């Protein structure tokens, strides 16, 4: 089962998907450079991971390569890492002085037959919300 909710007024996007996997396995998939690089980002994008230090205060630097040939440098700063249930981080562009674009909370919960991943993105501005919706953030969320 999968689904999504978008609330433009609150600048919030929530997507979820159920997997035939355990909660700890799904959590670890978000920590494994090789696994996450193989599926992260909207459809049509590929991802190259630089630094990935998953701990509160740690950073994850990666570049999303768009189908238009453009590169999008990203910077994540982890706020909370609670194995195996939750990751919270601030997400922005990997450029000096660039502001955070959104806070993302990823919850891993057990459901009958497996586990669910729920991703909630809370955008700082309406412009960032709109830009991410146009890039296919909902469709490529999980």
Walk me through what this model shows.
The chain is mainly beta. The chain is built from three helices and eight strands, in the order ββααββββββα. It has helices at residues 23-29, 33-37, 126-134, and strands spanning 2-7, 12-19, 46-52, 59-65, 71-82, 86-93, 100-111, 114-123. Strands 1-2-8-7-6-5-4-3 form an eight-stranded antiparallel beta sheet.
Secondary structure: elements and pairs:
Layout: E1 2-7, E2 12-19, H1 23-29, H2 33-37, E3 46-52, E4 59-65, E5 71-82, E6 86-93, E7 100-111, E8 114-123, H3 126-134
Antiparallel strand pairs: 1-2, 2-8, 3-4, 4-5, 5-6, 6-7, 7-8
Fill in the keyword field for this structure.
142 residues; 3 helices; single chain; 8 strands; eight-stranded antiparallel sheet; globular
Compose a concise summary of this entry.
The chain is mostly beta strands.
Question: What assembly state would you assign to the polypeptide chains in this entry?
Answer: single chain
Sheet bearing the most strands, described?
Answer: 8 strands, antiparallel
Shape: globular
pLDDT averaged over residues: 89
Number of strand elements: 8
Helix content bin: 10-25%
Total DSSP helices: 3
Reading the helices and strands in chain order gives: EEHHEEEEEEH
């Amino acid at each position: 089962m999968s689904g999504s909710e978008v609330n433009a007024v609150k600048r919030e996007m929530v997507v979820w998907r159920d997997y035939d996997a355990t909660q700890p396995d799904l959590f670890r998939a978000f920590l494994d450079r090789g696994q996450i690089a193989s599926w992260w980002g909207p459809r049509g994008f590929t991802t190259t991971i630089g630094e990935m230090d998953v701990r509160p205060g740690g950073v994850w630097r990666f570049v999303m390569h768009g189908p238009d040939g453009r590169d999008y440098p990203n910077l994540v700063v982890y706020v909370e890492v609670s194995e195996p249930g939750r990751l919270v981080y601030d997400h922005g562009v990997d450029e000096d002085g660039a502001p955070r674009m959104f806070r993302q909370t990823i919850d891993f919960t057990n459901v009958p037959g497996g586990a669910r991943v729920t991703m909630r993105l809370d955008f700082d501005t309406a412009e960032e919300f709109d830009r991410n919706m146009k890039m296919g953030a909902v469709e490529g969320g999980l």
